[in-house]
Amino acid sequence: MALIASTQTKLCRFLTKTLRPISFIGSMPPDPFYCSFSSSSSAAAVAPQREPMGFDLLGVKDYEDYRRSRYGEISHKGLLVDAVGTLLAPSQPMAQIYREIGEKYGVQYSEAEILNRYRRAYAQPWGRSRLRYVNDGRPFWQYIVSSSTGCSDSQYFEELYNYYTTDKAWHLCDPEAEKVFEALRKAGVKVAVVSNFDTRLRPVLRALNCDHWFDAVAVSAEVEAEKPNPTIFLKACELLGINPEDAVHVGDDRRNDIWGARDAGCDAWLWGSDVHSFKEVAQRIGVQV
Length: 289
Description:
Blueprint: H1 2-18, H2 43-46, H3 55-58, H4 60-71, E1 78-81, E2 88-90, H5 94-102, H6 111-123, H7 138-149, H8 154-163, E3 170-172, H9 177-186, E4 190-195, H10 201-207, E5 216-219, H11 220-223, H12 230-240, E6 247-251, H13 254-263, E7 267-270, H14 278-285
Parallel strand pairs: 1-4, 1-6, 4-5, 6-7
Antiparallel strand pairs: 2-3
């Protein structure tokens, strides 16, 4: 009992430090049409390599030991994975694609101008619905594309929209992901994707030949709730048949992924900070790959 009390005290201190609000001036959530203006498409650009923040000192290792003392060697029954920025990433910068496809439709803005206009448009409240991504998300993306490029040509929009359902548009962030998810599922850990995305996510997963890696997919356009709303995490747990406290969510956005998952009662690890690969995720759960 003394060990558990000590562990819980350390955990509370750790969470108090890590859950303090952080300014996100100029930041935007990842989405199906957006990517960094940098030309680099490596996984490192999506998940910057940083040294862990002294996990032993902050009590994380104690917390993992505590979970294993309660649940056994495998600390979680389910793994929830964010899509854009964690599982997959755009293969080319958004502004470059908008510009290249748009040239034949008369788009004249530079990539820098397109990016700046995109950011302004995306930051505006979306008045037609409380959700950006409703069903296929076309009304929202038509607004974003025309605002970013100054072009309202329907053929241009359809070509651009359909491009983002192909394997040319995306790549997997971690080349070892498949064997890691296979090992996790073989060990009895259920895996789900949890994403703010429109209904194109399933075709994208099929195009990348990774849809069969997952036991469930929770898409905001289908669930009618966007992260950080805990509803989407609870729906993912329901689809997996597990309780929220038995799941850990991994994502690259502190607000949407970490705070949202914790509000739902799930554990949560920040991609690119707490963990840097899916192999590391599996090892922290207690599954060797």
